[in-house]
Amino acid sequence: MGAEPKKRVLLVEDDPALILGLKDGLAFEGFEVLHAPDGETGLAMARTGNPDLVVLDIMLPRKSGLDVCQALRAEGNTVPIIMLSARGTEIDRVLGLKIGADDYVTKPFSMAELVARMEAIWRRNGFLNQHPDRQERLHFGDVEVDFEDHSAWKSGQPLALTPREFLILAHFAKNLGKVISRREFLQEVWEYEGAAVTRTVDTHMANLRKKIEPNPEKPNHLITVHRLGYKFKL
């Protein structure tokens, strides 16, 4: 049997020192590394280079990382995205997650942390292919989700869900009618331990409601249970 193909990582970054360190570090870890020095080039390479994951700085020339992420998600591109920022402000984190980023790393960070975040995303995505007790389809209202081939429709039209949104719905599908706490979501879907920020969960739930609910302000399916968490109703 041949060796497993290397995972391809697209690095979109303009800091020369960080580029050198990340390219060497990711190559040492066994990844194939593509590099784009600005947002416009990064967007084009994400569209055509078929990366397995994008490491995307927020502050970039020509087009910001937020704009690149938003453009990819608007096109239905579900490639996993980890956003980088030197600022570390909550507004950056919330904006990045709201527009579809899968994770967020604040500079400075270690190569071990970045690789751990990348592998956690791939493990979570692998859950959709390999988890033995998952439900293959979920149908509610005018929405249908197929976990087998990672596709979704609303009113018969394709619905662009991010990998994380598929995982959230898959977790709901296993726990229909049960109240799921934010902490459980962070542990089971994000694989975060300790005092992770629960705003991350709320941001994703609000974004998912906009996609699946007839009226996101008065949801029929994704229900907030005050002080406890969320539950899903068909």
Strand content: 15-25%
Number of helices: 8
Any idea what the CATH architecture of the largest domain is? 3-Layer(aba) Sandwich
Reading the helices and strands in chain order gives EHEHEHEHEHEEEEHHHEE
CATH class of the largest domain reads Alpha Beta
Major β-sheet, in short?
5 strands, parallel
How is the CATH topology of the largest domain named? Rossmann fold
What structural category arises from helix and sheet content? alpha/beta
Number of domains: 2
Cross-sheet strand order for the largest sheet: 2-1-3-4-5
**Name of the CATH superfamily of the largest domain:** Response regulator
Computed CA radius of gyration, to the nearest angstrom? 18 Å
Q: Ranges with pLDDT <50 over ≥5 residues?
A: 127-133
* Average pLDDT, all residues: 84
Helix content: 40-55%
In short:
The chain has about 230 residues and is α/β, with parallel strands linked by helices. It has helices at about 15-30, 40-50, 65-75, 90-100, 110-130, 165-175, 180-190, 200-210, and strands spanning about 10, 30-35, 55, 80-85, 105, 135-140, 145, 150-155, 155-160, 220-225, 230. The N and C termini lie far apart (about 45 Å).
How would you describe this structure in keywords?
234 residues, alpha/beta, Rossmann fold, Arc Repressor Mutant, subunit A, five-stranded parallel sheet, four-stranded antiparallel sheet, 41% helix
Written overview of the protein:
The structure is a single chain. By secondary structure, this protein is an alpha/beta fold. It has two domains: 8-127, Rossmann fold; 132-232, Winged helix-like DNA-binding domain superfamily/Winged helix DNA-binding domain (Arc Repressor Mutant, subunit A), CATH 1.10.10. It has eight helices and eleven strands. The protein has helices spanning 16-28, 39-48, 65-74, 90-98, 111-130, 163-174, 182-188, 199-212; strands at residues 8-12, 32-36, 53-57, 81-85, 103-106, 137-140, 143-146, 151-154, 157-158, 222-225, 229-232. The strands form three sheets. The chain has a five-stranded parallel beta sheet, with helices on both faces. The chain has a four-stranded antiparallel beta sheet with strand order 6-7-8-9, with helices on one face. The protein starts with 7 loop residues before the first strand and ends with a strand.
